[in-house]
Fold this sequence. Notes:
The structure is a single chain. The protein has helices at residues 3-15, 17-33, 37-54, 57-68, 98-101, 104-119, 138-148, 165-176, 190-199, 225-247, and strands at residues 82-85, 124-128, 156-159, 180-186, 203-209. The relative contact order is 0.16. The two termini are 24 Å apart. It is of the alpha/beta class. The protein folds into 2 domains: 3-68 and 223-247, no CATH class; 82-209, 3-Layer(aba) Sandwich (Rossmann fold), CATH 3.40.50. The protein is elongated, with a radius of gyration of 20 Å. It is built from 10 helices and 5 strands; from the N terminus they run ααααβααβαβαβαβα.
Amino acid sequence: xxxxxxxxxxxxxxxxxxxxxxxxxxxxxxFLYTSRQARAKLFLSLSAFLLFLFAYPPFTNFLVSNLENQxxxxxxxxxxxxxxxxxxxxxxxxxxxISSQLSAAGTKRVLEGVIIHxxxxxxxxxxxxxxxxxxxxxxxxxxxxxxxxxxxxxxMIINGKPTDTREEAVxxxxxxxxxxxxxxxxxxxxxxxxxxxxxxxxxxxxxxxxFYKEDFRGYxxxxxxxxxxxxxxxxxxxxxxxxxxxxx
Length: 248
């Protein structure tokens, strides 16, 4: 991992839900043990409120729906030469099957890419994504699942160097230029991805997958840990969009 990427991830941790709630809680404890009761109550109350808010299903659904409603599912009609499946997390634990070594989001991205490729078998699937903390790149891991699902090795282009969406777009530009191509990624990640790819003069066709949004089921619902995680995913995307716009 490069130093720049480490710094970006370190800073991001403290402004996303997990780090934000933890930081406020630790500050609250600090003020509590230093007998500054007013500040302790403030920071502990804020941490408890945000913990509840980010785990509250209606609020989580609001966050993800604003992202996921921007692009509808792919209609499986447009014929293109390239399908770019963006990377996601993985593990290289040999005790797990390949379907489990990829993250849930990564598995769905690969599956959607393979489904689209099966409709247009002359197309090529681009897999990108670096190794993270493992010894194998995410691009290679995704290609292994695609192979198991019946995609020929000759139909895949694998690049394990890109460490983020912007670098994935830079690489894809060298292959597709300004020609239309299908972009496969998580529905929450799609708005930022489309913005970045278009900023390079590219013409991606959105094929979102791994949706989190759900039908509204009323406000009288208890907070749950899974919704806190989903909120964290959404906040990460909002921050990514803001960072991309500030970066220009």
